[in-house]
């Protein structure tokens, strides 16, 4: 099931990155790109042509939003990993910042929202830092 918003139809060719069943996950946009990369491989696209092939298939824009359980729009700022992929594919990102505001533009733009850490990534980062703190200092 795909969530549709009337106002979004003005944006032309677009990809709904986060179907409602994935709404709890920040990883929607990265998974979507991964699926298209796999599709390119199935079509025998050479690896150095995959990015342009996928861009041609999905268009230059990607819309990312998430719905909270109460149906309102939540913050869908791409996480660090999705951020990297979206920059690699040079996509214009339209993502919800909260229930009223959207960001539209490239993530490399100066006013783009900085990448966020998901709670899982924050846990991993925390574990990494705690581990690093136990290591002997060598210099
Ligand atoms: Zn992500």
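^ structure tokens above, recovered residues below v
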């Amino acid at each position: 099931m795909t969530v549709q918003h009337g106002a979004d139809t003005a944006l032309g060719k677009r990809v709904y990155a986060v179907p409602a069943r994935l709404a709890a996950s920040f990883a929607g946009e990265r998974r979507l790109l991964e699926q298209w990369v796999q599709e390119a491989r199935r079509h025998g696209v050479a690896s150095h042509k995959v990015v342009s092939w996928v861009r041609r298939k999905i268009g230059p824009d990607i819309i990312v939003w998430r719905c909270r359980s109460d149906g309102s729009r939540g913050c869908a700022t791409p996480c660090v990993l999705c951020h990297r992929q979206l920059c690699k594919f040079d996509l214009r990102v339209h993502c919800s910042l909260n229930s009223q505001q959207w960001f539209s533009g490239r993530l490399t733009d100066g006013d783009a929202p900085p990448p966020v850490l998901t709670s899982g990534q924050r846990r991993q980062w925390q574990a990494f830092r705690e581990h690093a703190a136990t290591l002997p200092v060598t210099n």
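The radius of gyration is 17 Å.
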